[in-house]
Amino acid sequence: MKSSEHGALTRNQELVYDALTDAKGPLSAYAILDGLREHGIRAPLQVYRALDKLLEFGLVHRLESLNSFVACSHPECDSRETMVFTICEKCGKVSELADKAIAGQLESLADLDHFALKAATVELRGFCQACQTASTQ
After folding, report:
1. 82-88 and 120-126: which strand pairing?
2. What per-residue confidence (pLDDT) applies to 2?
3. From the CB of residue 23, how many other CB atoms can be counted at a distance below 10 Å?
4. Which domain holds residue 10?
5. Residue 71 · residue 21 · CB < 8 Å
6. Whether residue 65 sits in one domain with residue 7
7. Global confidence as pTM
8. What CATH number is attached to the domain comprising 50?
9. Which pLDDT band holds residue 127 (cuts at 50, 70, 90)?
10. Does the pLDDT at position 74 exceed 60?
11. Buried b (16+ CB within 10 A) or exposed e, 77-97
């Protein structure tokens, strides 16, 4: 079993985490369920419980605009409150970016409204370099 600072992952958590790590792009909970039926995972609740814990541990992220999940690509993620993702609208590639300046700007914006910011996720939609290049050829 994989270990995190939170201890060893349960079997279901490990299966869900591995499915996201092996995926070529983001997966919905139902896509994860479909891929794990042969491993004994049969109910959506099993996937959602595993995802909840993996989110809590900072091992996966939810992409709100896609209603899907991706494995974290930054090991220090659980200490960050601001995540930025680029999402290619053509091929579906998702990249996770870290930028302290953007995090500071979002905190400042929240402060202007006397808002106590807990976390922020920014999703940038457009076209990755490969898709841009392919469309110009």
Report:
1. parallel
2. 53
3. 17
4. 3-71
5. yes
6. yes
7. 0.83
8. 1.10.10.10
9. very high
10. yes
11. bbebebbbbbbbeeeebbeee
